């Protein structure tokens, strides 16, 4: 119940005002968000790269309903990619892109054109883009945009959410050579007709998707902190004769940092999803929704008002 309430609150202005202005919130936010500026993002990337970790950068900001804002978001990402190249970090860091930040809700061809500019900037910098997957009603549009982007930038990746009943089907379609698929459980709210809502069913679906991706010709990216799924992922990689360079683990900045380093220390490729920027509210609320204990920290910080 908490999960649905928190996810509903990502779109509630009053809730946003309360959370953003509560004293102490920023300290908790900093656990999940690397900072507010491009400088912060580059510094954290350099730090993580120094520890043998890879990075995917998420410039926070989503659900853009303004053309100028969408274009400004594209420019910010192009600047970020330029900075990564200058700092010699493009081989260590890619960019995660939310199509809703570049105008998907306004017009799909407009978002495609913007995403194309981001992919071109990534290509020039020497790195890649992975499309995040957002609300269930944007999935088909995101996959259409992916198909178009891959014509020019075949290295473009995409996230698939195992809570979607069709996730296994999507994985089968995407398990081809050159394809990069990030498998995650799914961080949004979706109706029962479209998504599994039971945690065990979501996990089982994750394993079915993982089997398809590991057996396929693409490059699987296992985005989970779940110890059982990480273990199953490793076992399936061995079963399918995948070398450590043929797949990667991905985790969020601030979550299970020791496990991130343990896997990297064993020779695995581990990529940390680093979110940064001022528009942290929705991202932060999704992190709270994933783990009720995080809510305790927030309530305590609010009580100290
Ligand atoms: P689960 O939620 O079961 O957590 C397993 C364990 O991990 C928990 O017991 C806890 O120890 C730890 N943990 C997980 N979340 C935590 C939190 N917030 N705070 C503290 N501890 C936590 N989703 C989506 O819909 N679209 C997307 O594009 C992406 N992209 C993405 C990229 C990457 C790199 C990751 C790791 C995740 C995403 N996600 C996502 C989010 C994903 O769908 C999911 O919500 C979270 O990863 C949590 O699910 P787990 O698989 O970790 O399992």
TrEMBL record:
The annotation note on the cofactor reads: Binds 1 FAD per subunit.
Q: Which species?
A: Actinomadura logoneensis
Residues at which substrate binds: 98, 286-287
Q: What class of enzyme is it?
A: oxidoreductase
User: What reaction(s) does this enzyme catalyze?
Assistant: L-proline + a quinone = (S)-1-pyrroline-5-carboxylate + a quinol + H(+)
Under Gene3D superfamilies, the record lists: 3.20.20.220
Q: So, what pathway does this thing act in?
A: Amino-acid degradation; L-proline degradation into L-glutamate; L-glutamate from L-proline: step 1/2
Residues covered by the Proline dehydrogenase domain: 45-298
Q: What is this protein called?
A: proline dehydrogenase
Say which domain of life the source belongs to.
Bacteria
InterPro entries the UniProt entry points to: FAD-linked_oxidoreductase-like (IPR029041), PRODH_bac_arc (IPR008219), Proline_DH_dom (IPR002872), Proline_oxidase (IPR015659)
List cofactor names only: FAD
EC code:
1.5.5.2
Q: Name one Pfam family in it.
A: Pro_dh
Q: MF terms per GO, please?
A: nucleotide binding; proline dehydrogenase activity
One GO term under biological process is:
L-proline catabolic process to L-glutamate
Q: Does the keyword Nucleotide-binding apply?
A: yes
Q: Which UniProt keywords apply?
A: FAD, Flavoprotein, Nucleotide-binding, Oxidoreductase, Proline metabolism
Recorded coiled-coil stretches: none
Give the binding site residues for FAD. 133, 161, 185-187, 224-225
